Each structure stands twice: as C-alpha cells, then as structure tokens.
TrEMBL record:
GO terms for biological process: carbohydrate catabolic process. This is Cytosolic beta-glucosidase. The active site is at E413. Keywords: Glycosidase, Hydrolase, Signal. Belongs to the glycosyl hydrolase 1 family. Klotho subfamily. Pfam families: Glyco_hydro_1 (PF00232). Its EC number is 3.2.1.21, 3.2.1.45, 3.2.1.46. It catalyses: beta-D-glucosyl-(1<->1)-N-octadecanoylsphing-4-enine + H2O = N-octadecanoylsphing-4-enine + D-glucose; beta-D-galactosyl-(1<->1')-N-octadecanoylsphing-4-enine + H2O = N-octadecanoylsphing-4-enine + D-galactose; Hydrolysis of terminal, non-reducing beta-D-glucosyl residues with release of beta-D-glucose; beta-D-galactosyl-(1<->1)-sphing-4-enine + H2O = sphing-4-enine + D-galactose. Residues 1-22 form the signal peptide. It comes from Denticeps clupeoides (denticle herring). GO terms for molecular function: beta-glucosidase activity; galactosylceramidase activity; glucosylceramidase activity.
Length: 541
C-alpha cells in the first residue's frame, strides 16, 4: 500500500479509498528535483523561535495573571503525562544564557512572544498593568539589541488571559477585539521604539480549530461546526484592528512592520490528472491558510469556503451559513492589513475528494469534503503528524506568491521533533530536515518568491502543548528533570550554524563536510550527558 490515511479522518471508507487510489498513483510523475547549490540573497535574515507559554515558566511569578494554558494544563487528562508549562525552560530567568545560545548560532533574529497576562494580568488594560512583566520583556529586548539580534515579537501565541475566557468566552466574543487592541497598543507604546517586527497572531488556525472546535487545546471547547469559524472571525478582525492602530498611531514614529503568522500545510492532489483531486487539494489549502490569508489580502473568505460551508449549513436546515460574513466596510478595513506574511510550515498531505453527509450537523473537518493521505515512505521522525516532505514547502511558497500578490514572507516556524524521550544529541534526521527544507526555500526564492527570513523552530526543547514535553523540537536539548534546566547543543546546532555563516549551500563538497563535522562530537557528548542523567529511553508511540 502506497498511501496511508491520517488518523484523524481515517474511516473504513477512506481506507478502501487509500487502497484503490494507491494502485493508480504514478510516482514517476512526481520528480521533485535534486539538491540546489547556491546562496541566499544578501541580507537574508536567519533566526530561531520560541513562545512565552512554551518556554518562560514562572507561571505565577512577579504579578503575572493566569492564562488559559495555565488553567488547561492544570486540569488532569488534558496534556500528555499531565505536564504543565509551570517551569518549562525557565527562560524567564535565563535571558543571558539564552542569548549566548543565540549568539553561538550567529542568528540575525530571534522570535519570541509576549505573554498577555504577564503584562496585563486580567487581560483588561484599564484594570492593571504589571510593570514587572514589562521589565522582563524590556530586558530581553535590550539584551537582544545589544548583541545585534533583531527581535521579532508575537503578540498572541495562544496564552489568552483566563479572566477573558471566564467572563466573555474568549475568542467566541467580539469584545476580545478591543481588549486585544489595547494590549497591542500598550506593547507598541512600551516596546515599539525598539521592536520593528510585530506578529499579531501565531497560527490562528490552531487557536480556532483546536481551542474551540476539537478542544484539544486551551480553552478546550468543543463547539462543533461554529466555534472555530466564530473564533477565526474575531481573530481576523482583531488582527486588522491592531494593524490599523499601528498604521495610524505608531508607524510614522516607529517605522516598524505588522504581520501575522499563518500555519500552512501543503495539500497535493493524490492524482494530479484527476480534476476532483485537484479541487479537493485546493480546498484543503483554502480551508487552512486561505481561511485567514484571503480576507487579509483580498478582503473576504475564500469563495470555496463560502460555498461549501454555506451549502452544508443550508442542508442542515440553518437559515444562515455557519461561516460568518464580513460587511462591505469590514472587507475594505481588513483588506491589505499585512506588511509581511509570516508562515509556519512543517508538513504536507496528499489530498483526495471525500464527501461527508451533512445529516448529523456540520464541522470544520467535514465541511471541506477532503480526505488526507500520507505516503508511508515519507520520513516521520518526530510528531505523529509531521512527515518530512520538503518539496511541499516550495509548492506552498509558490502558491502564496501567486494567490496573495507576492508579499514579503518571513518563515516564522519550520522544524522537526523527535520521538525518543531520551537524550539524543545526534539528531541527524533534523540535520536532514533543515538541509532539505531550507534548500526548497532557496529554490522558491529562485522561483521569485519574496522570502526575506527564516526562523528555525525552535531554539530550545520546550512544552509542546497537549503533547507536554514528549516532543522535542529544539536545536538545544533541555534537561527538564534537572530543576536548573540546563541546555545542550544538538548536532543540528553545528549544521544550522554553517548554513547561516555560508548564507546557504555553497558547494556539494562543503555541505557534505558540514554533516561530518556536525556529528563528530555528538555521540561522545551524548554519552557524557546520558551518564549524568537518569535516562530512560522510551518510544513515545
Ligand atoms: C505550531 C505552534 O505555533 C508551535 O507553538 C508548536 O511548537 C509547533 N507548531 C510544533 O507543533
């Protein structure tokens, strides 16, 4: 069998489809090309990223308020092993140390997020501003700048103040737009003299779908068929409002840029000669990145989303579509609110058409009428969902170029995790992943896509949401069982460092020598480290 169904959507019917589709699929038509030796444009920005809840720890220190992730992770059974981000990497106390790691890599930028409840404990600015929280971000920003590292700052990486969830229902409620705008405005006021790259939301797809539709993420609501669409609607409006706030009040003084970071898996038709598969794959991408990008670049939801959700809502007997609508004023207000597009990309799926009956009510996943498949030969070294398919990255980037008018792009997340819950500093699969994905990005730049920067995800191993600490994405290994949370470089640090200093891949001979050099010392450090730890190596599947 060539194709494998993805668990979430895997039904007997799809399995049959997998088997039959597999027989017809012609792999020879998918020659994805060879490695491209060359360098990136001068000034290309190399970075690594993190987010507040995933790394800071200090969840209840110095006047910080509760976020929905504090409360969610403290409930039993929500996160793998009942892990929490209470202390995580303790980055709140390790600004100097983390900056030395960033310097070791010679990064041009560092992407981090501001915890809203750390600086506004209740979420509502007029209640109270926590100066201790402001001081922490001041010192992080100042230390980065002293070391010539550009801060790229995300305003919302999923940690909504709990009070706003309790009182108003979080992103289900339109009032979030103003509260978020006040928080963003405070950040522009206090940090905008030094921060020039702002990202309003990180991966709003996950906020909407996993927070309000499937409930796998905080706040854990399962508002099937409506929750995700409503949350997304308010998020898009909040993003636009914050962009306008910056544009009207701060841009001329501060000269920065405001963008959004969208997640986008690529969807490739199972059979590129089959019109139904082609349309299904297009729908998959439109329901994913297009859901947010189309309003922001063109003023409204993708036509295909309006059609599908509208038709299914009518079939359910609803008077209006479950997908909310923008008024014409809103459309023109939202259109063009993006100085750069951030893209978080990790993986690809094969897509085929699959019709879902509407009888039992609608849901985001059945509204799309698609089935996701994977090729079992794709490497899947880490998270269950993360197959390494480098060529999908180039296709996604070209899609963005043609659909949204060739915007400036910053890759805000790209990387791979590992399955083993034990020390593994010899991460050759991560070296391979970075090498090939970064190479596909280089090819996309040669295709004319305006990629200006790349952010490896992530600087450190950290709290991986509902997976707890079981999935490690870091360039640096963090020993979470030691309360000092020491960091150790994985071999990929050495490899990424060389890509950065060469600004790409100068020649085959050189690139091949990098891998040898990167892995030269990792096995001895691995043994040393393992000897000092109570190591248990457990497959986490
Ligand atoms: C996207 C999220 O933004 C990030 O926080 C997470 O670590 C990665 N996906 C990997 O799952």
């Amino acid at each position: 069998m060539l194709l494998r169904c993805v668990t979430r959507t895997c039904h007997v019917l799809v399995l049959v489809l997998c088997l039959s589709a597999a027989e017809d699929f012609d792999w020879t038509k998918n020659n994805h090309g060879s490695f491209y030796y060359g360098t990136f444009p001068t000034g290309f920005s190399w970075g690594a990223g993190s987010s507040a809840y995933q790394t800071e720890g200090a969840w209840d220190q110095d006047g910080k308020g509760l976020s929905i992730w504090d409360v969610f992770s403290h409930k039993k059974g929500k996160v793998f092993f009942n892990d929490t981000g209470d202390s995580s990497c303790e980055s709140y106390y390790k600004v100097k140390e983390d900056i030395s790691l960033i310097k070791e890599l010679k990064l041009n930028h560092y992407r981090f997020s501001i915890s809203w409840p750390r600086i506004i404990p209740t979420g509502i600015k007029s209640d109270h501003v926590n100066e201790k929280g402001i001081e922490y971000y001041d010192s992080l920003i100042d230390s980065l700048l002293e070391n010539d590292i550009t801060p790229i700052v995300t305003l919302y990486h999923w940690d909504l103040p709990q009070l706003l969830q309790d009182k108003y229902g979080g992103w289900q409620n339109v009032s979030m737009i103003n509260y978020f705008n006040e928080f963003a405005n405070l950040c522009f006021e206090r940090f905008g003299n030094r921060v020039k790259y702002w990202i309003t939301f990180n991966n709003p797809w996950a906020v909407a779908v996993e927070g309000y539709e499937t409930g796998e993420h905080a706040p854990g609501l399962k508002l099937r068929g409506t929750g995700a669409y409503r949350a997304a609607h308010h998020i898009i409006k909040a993003h636009a409002k914050v962009w306008h706030t910056y544009d009207t009040h701060w841009r001329s003084k501060q000269n920065g840029m405001v963008g959004i970071s969208l997640a986008g898996d690529w969807g490739e038709p199972v059979d590129i000669t089959n019109q139904k598969d082609i349309e299904a794959a297009e729908r998959y991408v439109q329901f994913y990145m297009g859901w947010f990008a189309t309003p922001i670049f063109h003023g409204d939801y993708p036509q295909v989303m309006k059609e599908f959700v509208g038709r299914k809502s009518a079939q359910q007997g609803l008077g209006t579509s479950r997908l909310p609508t923008f008024s014409s004023q809103e459309r023109s207000y939202i259109k063009g609110t993006c100085d750069f597009l951030g893209i978080g990309h990790f993986t690809t799926r094969y897509i085929t058409q699959k019709s879902y009956p509407t009888g039992r009510g609608g849901a985001y996943f059945t509204d799309r009428d698609v089935a996701e498949l994977v090729d079992p030969r794709w490497p899947d070294p880490g998270s269950e969902w993360l197959y390494a398919v480098p060529w999908g990255f180039r296709r996604l980037l070209n899609f963005v170029k043609t659909q949204y008018g060739n915007p400036d792009i910053y890759i805000t997340e790209n990387g791979v995790s590992e399955k083993m819950m034990c020390t593994e500093l010899c991460d050759d699969w991560r070296i391979q992943y970075f090498k090939e994905y970064i190479n596909e990005m280089l090819k996309a730049i040669k295709d004319g896509v305006n990629v200006k920067g790349y952010t490896a995800w992530s600087l450190l191993d950290k709290f991986e949401w509902d997976e707890g600490y079981s999935e490690r994405f870091g360039l640096y290994y963090v020993d979470f069982r030691n309360h000092k949370k020491p960091r150790y470089p994985k071999a990929s640090v050495q490899f990424y460092k060389r890509i950065i200093s060469a600004n790409g891949f100068p020649s085959q001979r050189e690139v091949e020598s990098w891998k040898r050099k990167a892995t030269e010392t990792c096995s001895s450090s691995n043994q040393l480290l393992a000897a000092g730890l109570y190591i248990f190596c457990k497959r986490n599947t």
